[in-house]
């Protein structure tokens, strides 16, 4: 785990969850995440377990959720952060089947399979009260979208389509299950300083409050976002603080090209 996925996992530990099953196709990369979780965990009985998972494979995802329920008793929160982007800008007529297939397999099928199994598990949970006499919950799911979920990105057709699909699947799942006490939302990060972003963008401009692209004119805060800021949004949408919010699309680092909005968060 790295980037936003790793930071989200650590944020859950710091916030006080009792147990975390942290999953990645790169099992070796989970060690650093686990150690950091143990350092910051605030629950006295905290446990964190690693599991190698390929979200493109049915059996892997089924086993992931079965393991979580077996180890911790129930599934209360899920964050579907696994995703891949393009290695370089590529116009549609030059796109390669293998690369585009993998983008869709992870970003669309992966999120679909994870939500399917998470909802199955949460439907078995007993309702827990949030607001006496008014609101109860069985669980909360947060899907990681992208700026490309709401804004077309030139040269990234496959990725834009995949991230639009994440929002579409979230909306459809909410229509089906909001009455069951399950909230589902998306966080749509803009330019965020992750290892994946560092590999994608090779030309950074230093700035006293962070690191900027030379295209910083498009970014309202005049800097890139941090994985920690994306984790904060994910944690908020998971928590009772957002108990009246579902199918919300949090756009981070807004004001980009024609999709300009003023503010830090924009809720649709």
UniProtKB/TrEMBL annotation:
SUPFAM superfamilies: NAD(P)-binding Rossmann-fold domains. Keywords: Oxidoreductase. InterPro entries: NAD(P)-bd_dom_sf, SDR_fam. GO terms for molecular function: oxidoreductase activity. Gene3D superfamilies: NAD(P)-binding Rossmann-like Domain. It holds the Pfam family adh_short_C2. Belongs to the short-chain dehydrogenases/reductases (SDR) family. This is NAD(P)-binding protein. It comes from Armillaria gallica.
């Amino acid at each position: 785990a790295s980037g936003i996925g790793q930071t989200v996992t650590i944020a859950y530990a710091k916030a006080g969850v009792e147990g975390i099953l942290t999953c990645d196709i790169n099992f070796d990369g989970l060690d650093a995440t686990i150690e950091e979780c143990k350092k910051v965990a605030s629950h006295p009985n905290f446990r964190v377990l690693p599991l190698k998972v390929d979200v493109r494979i049915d059996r892997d995802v089924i086993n992931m959720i079965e393991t979580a329920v077996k180890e911790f008793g129930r599934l209360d929160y899920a964050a579907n952060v696994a995703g891949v982007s393009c290695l370089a800008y590529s116009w549609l007529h030059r796109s390669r089947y293998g690369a585009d297939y993998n983008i869709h397999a992870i970003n669309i099928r992966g999120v679909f399979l994870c939500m399917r199994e998470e909802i199955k598990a949460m439907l078995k949970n007993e309702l827990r009260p949030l607001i006496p006499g008014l609101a109860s919950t069985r669980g909360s799911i947060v899907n990681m979208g992208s700026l490309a979920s709401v804004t077309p990105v030139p040269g990234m057709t496959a990725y834009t389509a995949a991230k639009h699909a994440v929002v579409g699947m979230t909306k459809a799942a909410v229509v089906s299950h909001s009455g069951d006490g399950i909230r589902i939302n998306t966080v749509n990060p803009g330019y965020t300083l992750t290892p994946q972003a560092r590999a994608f963008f090779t030309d950074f401009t230093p700035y006293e409050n962070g690191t900027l692209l030379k295209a910083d004119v498009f970014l309202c805060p005049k800097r890139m976002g941090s994985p920690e800021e994306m984790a904060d949004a994910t944690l908020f949408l998971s928590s009772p603080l957002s108990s009246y919010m579902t199918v919300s699309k949090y756009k981070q680092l807004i004001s980009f090209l024609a999709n300009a909005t003023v503010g830090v968060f924009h809720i649709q």
